Amino acid sequence: MNNQELIIEAGRAERHYWKDIWCYRELFYVLSWRDITVRYKQTVIGVAWALIRPVMTMIVFTVIFGRLAKLPTEGNAPYAIMVYAALLPWQFFASSLSESSNSLITNANLITKVYFPRLIIPASTVVTNLVDFFISFVILLLLMGYYQYPPTMRFLLLPAFLLIAFLTSFGVGLFLTSLNVKYRDFRYVVPFIIQFGFYVSPVGYSSSIIPEKYRLLYSLNPMVGVIDGFRWAILGGKSMIYLPGFLLSLSITIFFLIIGIGFFRKMEKSFADVI
Amino acid sequence: MSETVITAEGLGKSYVIGHQHKESYSTLRDVLTNLPKQLWSRLRNPQYHTHENIEEFWALKDVNFEIKQGDRIGIIGRNGAGKSTLLKILSRITEPTTGRVKINGRVASLLEVGTGFHPELTGRENIFLNGAILGMSRAEVKKKFDEIVDFAEVEKFLDTPVKRYSSGMYVRLAFAVAAHLEPEILVVDEVLAVGDVAFQKKCLEKMGEVAKGGRTVLFVSHNMAAVSALCPMCIYMSQGHVKELGKTNNIILQYLVDFKDTNDVHLSKRVDRRGSGKIRITGLQVLDAMTKKKLDMAISGQDVIFSVDYETFDSSFKKLSDVSVGIQIYTATGTFVTALNSRPSRLLFDELPTEGRIYCLVPRFPLMTGTHYVTLVMHSNNELMDLVEQASKIEVRTGDFYGTGIENVYGRQGVFFQQDWGIELDKLLRFNSRK
Question: What is the ipTM of this complex?
Fold first, then answer.
């Protein structure tokens, strides 16, 4: 018999928060595993879907921006690889955002029936999208093989940038998730944010075409730092990172992460009542 | 002396009800459109509060109790008495507004069977998923896996997605996982109201077993028979308070006496109802079929008419279509006896006026004796319009059901059947077919 005493009162859950998350880590694994299994079971094309989307987008972008608009690539990298290096983190960010912002509502049956730290749900959604990321990553390797564009030592730093991409998706995702529970029509805003973000992030073009004086302003978008980082690591060679911008993007990411978690925790207590 | 495992002190939970929106969540649009309005009123009157159409509702208020280790406690009360809110607080789904609860030991709450089951996953996968959701570790589930599968009787379908399960299999599997939880404190909400009778019995036995293992059980139910079978002690909740805590038999009696009082409240004024409320049942009368007069007491064997009054509370309804009425009859201890329903008898009412009366004729009323309670249900177009539990009471006196002039004085609650007796089977059957 364990003599651990539990006290439930208003505001009490706050104090044990991080310990609770640790206690419920197994649920976190299981929920992620559920989302992953279901995702690849449900759709007929399953894994293929994670490949088709980025490949098609890459082809369209390469043709439109590279061939027709004749935008410059970074260094001597083929335009296709440059686009794909940005699409990887972008797709991950976009689907994490749209899925995690809906995650609490789709899991409403769990929230109203069982206790666990609610943070687990959006977190497991983001992790699920990580699997898609790795599947799409295989294409990048094939692409680099096809163009005979060998990676440099910088490639080894890719996990660090992936971590930043993860934290950005998670932070912004949490923020939108809590807003979505509170204001139910926020789900119409999320697709707009994603579409808008797509154009203000350097996905189809290189961020080097942004005039120098606007570069810092441009980097207020946290995905600019992430995408530049990915390109820097993947393309190697002449691809340069704009350091002040990168640091600004990074701090915006951290800002969103802190605000997102804080906001989420503040709203979390009332989720079961509101949902 | 066993130690106290749950202590509740001054527990309260309030919900804010806005009179303007029906939903508990708001929309951004509302917030944005209300903003200028609020600013304007605040400019004109700095003391202005926006709370004018917000009301606090205390689902629980000043709840105190102590539960000792190994106690099996039933929680009874009418709809809206705060039972579910109490369970939600105990299982940490929602936080109390005031007061505190001290709990010693691991709590597992079972507020629903099959929480988190995913239709696309197989039975095997769902066992692990549901186990984790209910708080079992993977190792625990693995250890109990065979037992769970045995209990649920679904060996053959373990690798079939549960969306292809029959509803019975689904419920069995879900309960099986829950039944193998081994917490020190088990909190159960009305989950036994599912599955067939044999399975319900199995569940009750399993719960009894769990309780005998020295675990503490909190059990919410409307089924008095189940509560009294399982729990020696009972908490009676009413309007957010603990009205009484004591021996189950006494409490159930008290509860039923209170029901008598509420039966004096006119059916149309009862607030403890479910359904959309677009149509409401406003009255029930039991009439004698011969004289068409209201009966205070029905007599077995008499032709009886149930007359159900309804009214429409949604002005958009001009004519009511596809209406069905159900009359469920329970004994005083809450055991289900039978249900009269116009739907299975393929009678749906169409083109009904927005206010009126529907009759149900029961030839040779077959109940034996005693007090019975009636739950009334009304559907329209497959939507639940109104449901009032224990809407009314019917007193039954034993009468001459068989028309032989001999009254059957059983003095027990039950049902009369048509019967014929004989020593030659063929003759008996021939006689029957002639009738």
Answer: 0.81
